[in-house]
Each structure stands twice: as structure tokens, then as C-alpha cells.
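Example record

The entry below shows one chain as it appears in the dataset: sequence first, then C-alpha cells.
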Amino acid sequence: MNLKVTNETSRTESTDPTIERSESDKIVDGMDFGEFCNEFECISSLLVESTARQLVRDILELREGNRALGTYAVSVKYKDPVRSFTGREKYKRRLWITGALENPSVTVQEILMFSTSVLGIKWTIQGKPKSFHASIGGDLIIRVDSQFTLNQISGQVIEHEEFWDLSSSSVIALAFFWTSHRLFATIEAGKDFADGAKDISTRFSTMQENLEVYPGPSGDPTKFFQRDGGFQSDVYQIALFLAVLYFVVQFQRTTL
């Protein structure tokens, strides 16, 4: 199944939010999401349509930090030519677009449903680079092909991949794009590493707490035992056995 709707709706500057929402709704209203249920089973849900509407709104409004995170699964996977990550919390971060381009405009050209679970949105970003030298090359024009794989029941995005076409941009604008975008990706990767280290530290602290002393089974609150320490416990047991063996051998030598 390959269903699509085309539209030239655009957003250039911040206007009345009600108008922006109505524009995105009009785009999605023209879509055919296929048959959600047949006489035997339901293969998708109305939440897929709701997700499509929200994704279009996010694109048209260039949202950053205030996205409806419920649109994305907790462990959603994102990928583009220079960056990839896992986890919807990262969608809260600042967008490269708003940090690199002056008054960027967004135009949605096409929305496609490749199946009841795969949604495609084709849109274009256009704006002048904030770098003075790069702005000499004119506007940067990026044609984006966003593909979303959705959970057919919950409607949440489980995979998000983007493809870029910069063939309409000048050489100077292209150089600015790749340089600034790779720098942005490197900074974000550093944040990812810091978040990962923090998560590991939190998990380690939790494990340490689980190894604390617990009351014994006798019911006597003054008696405690420690949980099995794994490898460390095995080392202690082997050391104790060798010590006992050593004393037995020494005792036999002195008495025989």
C-alpha cells in the first residue's frame, strides 16, 4: 500500500498557533490511513492518525524541547547521515535548525503511508546560515525525507530515520551545513556519553544498595546476613579452605 497526500503548506515565522494547527490538520485530513480493522482482526489503530497529525505539527512549528514525547516510544531509535541515538528524552534537546539558520522556513510537500505502520513525510527547510561567511553562498536548502515506523496498536514511533538532499544549495552553503552539522552531532554525542555514564553510575549505586546487610531469617532483629557477593565470596571461601588445609598439614607435621 502506498498512499499519499501532497501539500505546499509552509511556516516562515511564528504566527497564530491556531492557524498552524489547522494547517497541519488539513494536510493530514487529506490522507487515507487504510483499513484499521477487517472482519477478523484489527491491524492498526486510530492512534496512528493522531501520531501523524502531531508529527506534522512538530515539523511545521519547528518545536524544540516541548514536543509531545508521548508520540515516541521510550526506546525509539533515531538515525540520520551523521547522528544516531536511542531514547525519546533526547528529542527534548535543541534542534540544529534553529541554532544554525536565520529565520528558517519549513514547507511540507508530501505525506505517504507506505503501510499501516510506516509513515513518510517529505519537507523542505530553507534559511540563511548564521555564519557571515557562509551566508555569502545564499540560502541553505535541505529537502528532508523523514520515515517513521509506528507501533500499529499504540501509534507511537519506534524508529525514525531521515534522509537529506542538498542538491539545491551552493558549495559554500554545503560546506557550512556539513561542518556545522558534524560539530553539532559531536557535541550531542558527548551529551549522550555523559548521560550514559550517569545512568551506569545510578545502576551501580542501586546494585550497591542491594548488597547491603538484611535481617536474618531467625526473626532476631539483632542478627544480620549479607547477600552472596559472587566472585568475591568465592575467593574468600577458597582462601579459608587453603588456610584450614595449611593448619592441618602443619599440625600433622608437629605431631607425627
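Notes for this example: Residues 1-6, 9-15 have pLDDT under 50 and may be disordered. The first strand starts at residue 3 and ends at 11.
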